[in-house]
Design a protein that fits this description.
The complex is a heterodimer. Chain A is 26% helix and 23% strand. By secondary structure, chain A is of the alpha/beta class. In chain A, α1 links the parallel β2 and β3 (59-64). By secondary structure, chain B is an alpha+beta fold. Chain B has two domains: 3-124, Glutaredoxin (3-Layer(aba) Sandwich); 156-487, no CATH class. Chain B contains 16 helices and 19 strands. In chain B, strands 13, 14, 15, 16, 17, 18 and 19 form a seven-stranded mixed β-sheet that branches. In chain B, strands 3-2-1-5-6 form a five-stranded mixed β-sheet. A two-stranded antiparallel ribbon of chain B has the order 4-9. The chains are: A alpha/beta, B alpha+beta. The A-B interface holds A 1-13, 66-71, 93 and B 143, 145-156, 160, 165, 173-176, 179, 197, 200, 202-204, 207-208, 211-212, 215, 239, 241-242, 246-247, 289, 293-296, 474-475, 479-481. β1 of chain A pairs antiparallel with β10 (147-150) of chain B.
Chain lengths: 93, 492
């Protein structure tokens, strides 16, 4: 066989590199955002998590997507970023 | 301003051989004549030795032949500062003499025959034309994709799979020649953005869609349908991101409805949801490969389907127009009868609803209503809009009774109801179910879907068999994925 030239079927994008946020300081109380994506029983997991976080002295903010079928809207993500130092997204199943 | 004659010839053309000695004599005398052969060096040298020619050179890479694009050689062109003023293709003594006079070139044409037809230019040979057109497309910026070289020792099919470009089946290597042939079937600029494709929201140009359509084995004539399908699938209300990411086994199902479907050879009849028709499968697969390769949707990473289903490879069929008792899906969705539309649904795998017994529309609607009741999960309601693919034998039962589409939908809707008490959590020995507060039962039961109009009806299938199909659609409401329709460009 001879060399074959083909055209790249991808979008030819460079991978986006995200740097990790600075680690949270151990022992310091923080504000944690819990996002319910509205899958069945997701709230059970988040309720349990909230209790444990509060027991450790942290503050919890609860958020909820309008629908599990679409990505969280930018406004909601922005709100979480502004209000919280860490977040947990419950994927339920 | 300088004028010259440019002669394009080839070694195996008898008409070229008549003209060549005359041109060669003038060129060797220092006249403004350039003689360029489209043949190889060996062929050109052998011809020169045979005819005693000394001033013939090569049209390297057929550059000037491609630029001036003659149908036939010898082609004699009158150029002024590189710009073409006139040309003669083949041998026409009087016109050649006139061209020579205009160029100020003394040509001894007296011994030439009055007229002789030329030979096809080498740029018309299929094996020459395709690479030439690919090269021109690159030079003109019509194709801009990165070139990937697959080594001589690599099997191209294995190499494409290893690079992660396939859906698990072999793909056609997307050479520039094949992509350019694909692009011939649209009027759209290859660099125009068709859609921004989830999940990573990268722009898919017409060129990128054409590359993936080649890989899918899609016939070039069906490219306009693929372009419309991608546009529809990326309509925000269709929520392609959710369709990709969900654990639910849904895939974009394309229904092509209108006269173009038959023109490009799609199957709307027997086994149209199955194998055997390259156009149906090629269109569906082209969409899926574009979503994978441009949008970046990879199974197991972005695509979190628990099990998936076969339709994630390709799911596309045409609506049957002949003998239909109803207006087509695309007409129902706002297009004109002469237009072709492609509608995308977020669909599960199809399931059969057999009923060769019912002779009345009420009885057949009852079969369909019961099938609808059991769709997705028998105890869940509301969010799962159904598509009934109705074959001729079932369509005839409704058609004879004069039921229009809205009547059929309404009757199926009524027969999909079930008492609320049977749907709640724990009922019928099953924890799955609905919250009683989410159910409203006026005594007639809770319908499967919120309203009759979310039920979709498509007419397709072979003449024999009362085998309708029911296809579930993923959360088909404004919070989920609504079907989307686009008109297919009429490119011809």
């Amino acid at each position: 066989m001879k060399e074959l030239e083909i055209l790249d079927p991808t979008a030819e994008q460079e991978a986006t590199h995200w740097s990790l946020a600075a680690p949270l300081e151990a022992g310091r109380a923080i504000r944690v955002g819990l996002l319910d994506i509205t899958k069945p029983r997701g709230e059970l997991f988040l309720d349990e998590l909230e209790q444990r976080l509060v027991a450790h002295g942290h503050t919890v903010e609860r958020y909820r997507k309008v629908t599990m079928t679409r990505p969280a809207v930018d406004e909601l993500v922005g709100e979480m970023v502004r209000a919280c130092e860490a977040s947990v997204v419950a994927l339920a199943d | 301003m300088s004028r010259e004659l440019l002669a394009l010839v080839k070694h195996d053309c008898p008409t070229c051989e008549l003209l060549l000695p005359v041109l060669d004599a003038a060129a060797c005398d220092g006249a403004a004549v350039r003689i360029l052969s489209q043949s190889s060096r060996e062929e050109t040298d052998a011809q020169a030795a045979r005819l005693g020619l000394q001033c013939v050179t090569l049209d390297a890479e057929l550059e000037l032949s491609a630029r001036h694009d003659p149908d036939a050689v010898p082609a004699l062109l009158l150029l002024e500062d590189g710009r073409e003023l006139d040309r003669v293709e083949g041998l026409d003594r009087e016109r050649i003499a006139a061209l020579a006079r205009a160029a100020g070139v003394p040509l001894e044409v007296g011994a030439l025959p009055e007229r002789r037809p030329g030979c096809a230019s080498r740029t018309r040979d299929p094996e020459v034309l395709a690479p030439l057109r690919a090269r021109q497309a690159r030079e003109q910026g019509r194709i801009r994709s990165r070139v990937i070289r697959i080594g001589a020792l690599e099997d191209p099919f294995e190499a494409l799979d290893r690079r992660g470009f396939t859906d698990g089946l072999p793909v056609i290597p997307p050479t520039a020649e094949r992509v350019v042939a694909m692009l011939d079937h649209t009027r759209r600029d290859p660099q125009e953005v068709v859609a921004v494709v989830p999940p990573y929201l990268y722009a898919a140009t017409v060129e990128k869609v054409a590359i993936n359509a080649v890989m899918a084995g899609c016939p070039p004539r069906a490219l306009p349908i693929v372009l419309a399908a991608l546009d529809a699938a990326c309509e925000p209300s269709f929520s392609l991101h959710g369709v990709i990411a969900t654990t639910n086994p849904v895939a974009p199902l394309l229904v092509v409805s209108g006269p173009l479907a038959a023109e490009v050879g799609m199957n709307a009849e027997g086994n149209c949801l199955g194998q055997g028709n390259r156009v149906n499968l090629g269109i569906g697969r082209a969409l899926q490969l574009t979503v994978r390769n441009v949008g970046g949707a990879l199974p197991g990473l972005d695509d979190r389907a628990t099990l998936g289903q076969m339709g994630k490879l390709a799911a596309c069929f045409a609506e049957r127009l002949d003998g239909s008792p109803w207006e087509s899906l695309s007409v129902e969705r706002g297009l004109a009868e002469h237009e072709t539309g492609v509608t995308v649904f977020a669909a599960e795998g199809p399931r059969v609803v057999p009923d060769a017994v019912s002779r009345t529309p009420e009885s057949l609607a009852a079969s369909f209503g019961m099938a609808l009741d059991a769709l997705y999960h028998p105890k869940l309601r509301d969010a799962f809009a159904p598509i009934f693919v109705i074959p001729p034998s079932c369509g005839a039962v409704f058609g004879r009774a004069g039921w229009d589409k809205s009547r059929v939908k309404r009757e199926i809707f009524e027969r999909s109801k079930r008492p609320a008490a049977e749907l709640v959590h724990g009922a019928r020995g099953c924890e799955q179910g609905m919250d009683p507060t989410a159910l409203s039962d006026d005594g007639s039961g809770v319908p499967k879907v919120p309203s009759p109009d979310v039920i979709q009806i498509v007419y397709a299938g072979g003449d024999a068999g009362s085998m309708a199909m029911l296809v579930g659609a993923f959360a088909a409401n404004e919070r989920g994925s609504l079907p989307a329709t686009r008109r297919v460009e009429d490119w011809q």
